[in-house]
Amino acid sequence: MSNNRSDAVHIASFVIYLKPEHIAAASAELLAMSGVEIAQTDTTGKLIVVLETDSDAGVARFLDLAHQLPGVAAVNFVYHQSENETELAKEIA
């Protein structure tokens, strides 16, 4: 489902594979990006990244930027959910 309204929240996750010697530099660049969290790092060169943004275009921009990070071999798009911000704020009963 595509939700590009201004009250939308897009949550996406990715697995980024890169050369181990580039983990620190790539991690620093990722963490400098708005809405990016590194959920897991593997010393062999695998990062699990979660992105929260306000549009599909923000997800696409992140994918483009992630492919340009130093030492990146592949970026796998794992998950994407778009939700109304008000709905996300509701308590789950």
Automatic annotation (TrEMBL):
Domain of life: Bacteria
Protein name listed in UniProt: Chaperone NapD
Pfam families from the UniProt entry: NapD
Gene Ontology molecular function, alphabetical: signal sequence binding
Principal subcellular localization: cytoplasm
Described purpose of this protein according to its UniProt entry: Chaperone for NapA, the catalytic subunit of the periplasmic nitrate reductase. It binds directly and specifically to the twin-arginine signal peptide of NapA, preventing premature interaction with the Tat translocase and premature export.
Subunit-level organization: Interacts with the cytoplasmic NapA precursor.
Keywords: Chaperone, Cytoplasm
InterPro entries: Chaperone_NapD_NO3_reduct (IPR005623)
GO CC list: cytoplasm
Protein location: Cytoplasm
Any single GO BP term: negative regulation of protein transport
Family, as annotated: Belongs to the NapD family.
